Amino acid sequence: MASQVYSPTTAPNPKDSWFMVPSDNLDKIRFGIKVVEVLFSFVAFILEEVVSSCVNCSSLYFFEFVSCTAFLFTLLLLILLSTVLHTRVGITCWPSLDFVYTGVIAVLFLIASIVFASDHSGSAYENIAVVFGFFATVLFTVDLIMFVKTKGFPFKKDGKPEASNGGPAVGPAQPEEEKLNPPPQ
Description:
It is a single chain. By secondary structure, this protein is mainly alpha-helical. The chain has a domain at 29-151. It contains six helices and no strands. The longest helix has 28 residues, at 124-151. The chain is elongated and about 95 Å long.
């Protein structure tokens, strides 16, 4: 009897959920891209770590630094943006932070992959690590492009409002032509 009365009207509260995808900061497609970024960065890092000897170790160490940094910080960013934790950190400019971080890591991964590809001993682990480095670079670039397509450029300061819902952009309010209270005579 009680289940017949309460079941149709009882629904879970979506605000009580700790996992928030899609949200204002992260949609489902970019969430999936970020998960694959984390995985590819981790695989590149692990493959680089199993290299037993190197001819010129500076390119290996730079690739290690970039792949480890990309793995750890992208995982942290993914956890923060897909849960309610981002509201407790005190940062209000998440879109700008996400955009800058993704762009910087894409450039660093590209540089590290090119340098490591040009200066390694040619072992199988090194070759596969370079391939995963380039794959991660492509994913970070795709993430950046998807960000701009869905949210626009986060640092736009031209003062012009953007069009919403396909309609024309609405400019700033014009001053009134007629005063509400005429001046006393």
